[in-house]
Amino acid sequence: MTKPKHILLIIGGGIAAYKASELIRLIKKAGMTVRCVLTESGAQFVTPMTLAALSENEVHTTLWSLKDETEMGHIQLSREADLVVVCPATANLLAKMAGGIADDLATTLLLATDTQVMAVPAMNVRMWDHAATRRNISQLKNDGIIIMPPEEGDMACGEFGSGRLPEPEAVMTEIASLLGSPFLPVSGLPQSELGPNPLEGQPAFAPDQHRPLHGKHVLITAGPTREPIDPVRYIANRSSGRQGFAIAAAAAEAGAQVTLVAGPVHLATPAGVMRVDVETALEMEAAVEAALPANVAIMVAAVADWRADNRAEQKIKKKGEAPAPLKLTENPDILAGLAKHDRRPDLLIGFAAETEKIAEHARTKLAKKGCDWIVANDVSGDVMGGADNSVHIVTAEGNEIWERLPKPEVARRLVQKIIEEIS
């Protein structure tokens, strides 16, 4: 009989702690066991008695339990779990984790564990956007911590923005994925809020290879960029971001730590993916730089080649005559820059949107950019915004053609090819 998976759930101090009760119920419903560590501040929002009743296990609250520490309880707690989940992970708790501080039971066992740790941040939007938090998140990612990004929405403090704890069903979906179980349905959120699932209807990786990218950092760009002309107008393109988001979902499903740098698109963040939203090419270049190092980089985004040289501070008014010609300046070539970077990813993949001579143009781009592969997609039809894609995988060894496929299937095949390349 297979031993059930065991979760160690660390509950930080924030209003979102109330969702831990529902998460415990879902963990139990999935046939897993769960033991809770409740921080001192977390106990201001939920009680040990509630968590004990739901988990059917003792709740641990202090490093100074004589019985537990006689048996080195914090070491035992940290080692017996198949996955350690910090939910909610407050800004304070994330800062301590990033700094290696161990001043209570939760932070001590986090420092003592060699088990995979997943953190689910929840905090005020200004705290989430603060440079210190972004720095801590980057450090934790580099340390191998899985970060499930917060959602955007109304908050208990009355503000709106990123920082909301994902719904328990979404957190449970990610837990199941990390442990190699099938995804659980996210039933608590309306589909209109979730957006399309990039992997809907697609088979998961086989059980014996469900984590083939575990320990690898995959950096992906997706979507268009917008280059402002004035406060209301911009230069952009028709990229929907769907292919890049599908690749991010497939890479996360394969166990990778995924950073997705996304241009302005209206798509749900795939489970287990760290998303960084940008608008311009310069912002995307900075976000890619901040995400390094990476084992694999997949540059799917359709970055604008040009931007306005002099952005107008006020809306340009129509005066009955043609305005002065728009002066443009060239944007940085993010892909070519990565190819020459001193922290160049081990595998660097570029995308090329073409309308004719697909393979010929892709091979020229491969040589010009200095990357390892070019994935050239034919955008002469409805690909930009459509559900399907037809691609050529161009490498130094040759050209592999994938006829028209759903974008999630293209994503899965590409991730499988990456796994074979770097394994």
UniProtKB/TrEMBL annotation:
What's noted on cofactor binding? Binds 1 FMN per subunit.
Q: Keywords, A to Z?
A: Decarboxylase, Flavoprotein, FMN, Ligase, Lyase, Magnesium, Metal-binding, Multifunctional enzyme
Q: Where is the signal peptide?
A: none
Q: In which pathway does it act?
A: Cofactor biosynthesis; coenzyme A biosynthesis; CoA from (R)-pantothenate: step 2/5; Cofactor biosynthesis; coenzyme A biosynthesis; CoA from (R)-pantothenate: step 3/5
Residue span(s) of domain DNA/pantothenate metabolism flavoprotein C-terminal: 213-420
Cofactor(s) in the UniProt record: FMN; Mg(2+)
Residues annotated as binding CTP are D305, K315, P332, D333, I334, L335, F351, K365, K369
As its record notes, the protein acts as a catalyst of: (R)-4'-phosphopantothenate + L-cysteine + CTP = N-[(R)-4-phosphopantothenoyl]-L-cysteine + CMP + diphosphate + H(+); N-[(R)-4-phosphopantothenoyl]-L-cysteine + H(+) = (R)-4'-phosphopantetheine + CO2
Which InterPro entries does the record cross-reference, listed alphabetically?
CoaB-like_sf, CoaBC, DNA/pantothenate-metab_flavo_C, Flavin_trans-like, Flavoprotein
User: What is one Pfam family matched by this protein?
Assistant: Flavoprotein
Catalytic activity, EC = 4.1.1.36, 6.3.2.5
Single GO MF descriptor: phosphopantothenate--cysteine ligase activity
Described purpose of this protein according to its UniProt entry: Catalyzes two sequential steps in the biosynthesis of coenzyme A. In the first step cysteine is conjugated to 4'-phosphopantothenate to form 4-phosphopantothenoylcysteine. In the second step the latter compound is decarboxylated to form 4'-phosphopantotheine.
- The protein in question is named Coenzyme A biosynthesis bifunctional protein CoaBC
Q: What is the native source organism of this protein?
A: Parasphingorhabdus halotolerans
Gene for this protein? Answer: coaBC
